[in-house]
């Protein structure tokens, strides 16, 4: 680095030499790590998709034949045999659900559409249509405020609402499930959505754990599921540049909040 220095005898030029090789090396290592992480994520997504896709066909065959055994030979063998066949049917069904959820998780990053202006209210209404069987069976009361247009992948936004409302219906105390969805401005360009329920609630110790794949807070005998639903929600929200969190108290319902960019950010 050169810099002029004026003295009584005239102008002198001074030079300073700084060794930046260590900084350059650190920058290069950081770039390499970023590229490695990117490749690792891409390979993981590809592996999950291929494994899930290729496993489905043989698993369908296993499930089909174990169900056939159950229907054709139930009561014709001893009680132990009936139990063994039932375990096989249940195991195959759970594996099918697990593979489907794993495939859905991998597709969030690999099959997502371009983010564009989307009516979150229409996406929410479609999610309720998809859940109509569970809503009718449980007698759930689902209400919502006016919901804003956002910058989103519509299919993934529907899935996000569907997972959160579906969980609120599933993890319930005795009585009628009540779920309310709302949205409020969160800064200049963001909306903060809230899905509030009157369900079982979550101990604060598990607030982070619930968003991790395959993490379950309840026994399989109590509530069916694979433990991937909220991990999918987290991945969808993060792909949209937002955050998701939960606030709750065991036995007193939960509130899931997530942020999305408003559609006005495109103008």
Structure description:
Strands 4-6-7-9-8 form a 5-stranded mixed β-sheet. A two-stranded antiparallel sheet has the order 1-2. The chain has a two-stranded antiparallel ribbon with strand order 3-5. Helices cover 49% and strands 20% of the residues. It has 2 domains: 21-111, Helix Hairpins; 116-261, Heat Shock Protein 90 (2-Layer Sandwich), CATH 3.30.565. The protein contains 6 helices and 9 strands; from the N terminus they run E-E-H-H-E-H-H-E-E-H-E-E-H-E-E. The protein has helices at 21-73, 79-110, 120-130, 132-138, 154-170, 229-239, and strands at 2-7, 10-15, 116-119, 141-144, 149-152, 178-185, 190-197, 244-248, 254-261. Strand 8 and strand 9 form a beta hairpin. It has 267 residues and is α+β, with helices and mostly antiparallel strands.
């Amino acid at each position: 680095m050169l810099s002029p220095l004026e003295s009584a005898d005239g102008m002198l030029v001074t030079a300073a030499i700084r060794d930046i090789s260590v900084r350059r090396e650190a920058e290069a290592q950081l770039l390499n790590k970023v590229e490695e992480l990117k490749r690792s994520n891409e390979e993981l997504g590809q592996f999950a998709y291929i494994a899930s896709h290729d496993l489905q066909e043989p698993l369908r065959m296993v499930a089909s034949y174990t169900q056939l055994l159950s229907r054709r030979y139930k009561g014709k063998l001893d009680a132990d045999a009936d139990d063994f066949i039932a375990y096989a049917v249940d195991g195959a069904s759970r594996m099918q659900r697990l593979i489907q959820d794993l495939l859905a998780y991998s597709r969030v990053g690999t099959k997502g559409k371009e983010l564009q202006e989307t009516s979150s209210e229409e996406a929410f209404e479609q999610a309720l249509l998809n859940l109509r069987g569970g809503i009718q069976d449980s007698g759930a009361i689902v209400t919502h405020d006016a919901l804003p247009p956002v910058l989103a992948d519509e299919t993934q936004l529907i899935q996000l609402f569907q997972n959160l409302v579906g969980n609120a219906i599933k993890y319930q105390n005795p009585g009628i499930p009540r779920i309310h969805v709302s949205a409020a401005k969160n800064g200049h360009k963001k909306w903060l959505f809230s899905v509030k329920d009157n369900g079982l609630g979550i101990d604060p110790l598990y607030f982070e754990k619930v968003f991790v794949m395959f993490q379950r807070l309840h026994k399989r005998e109590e509530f069916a599921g694979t433990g991937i639903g909220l991990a999918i929600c987290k991945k969808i929200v993060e792909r949209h540049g937002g955050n998701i969190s939960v606030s709750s108290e065991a036995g007193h319902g939960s509130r899931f909040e997530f942020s999305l960019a408003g559609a006005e950010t495109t103008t």
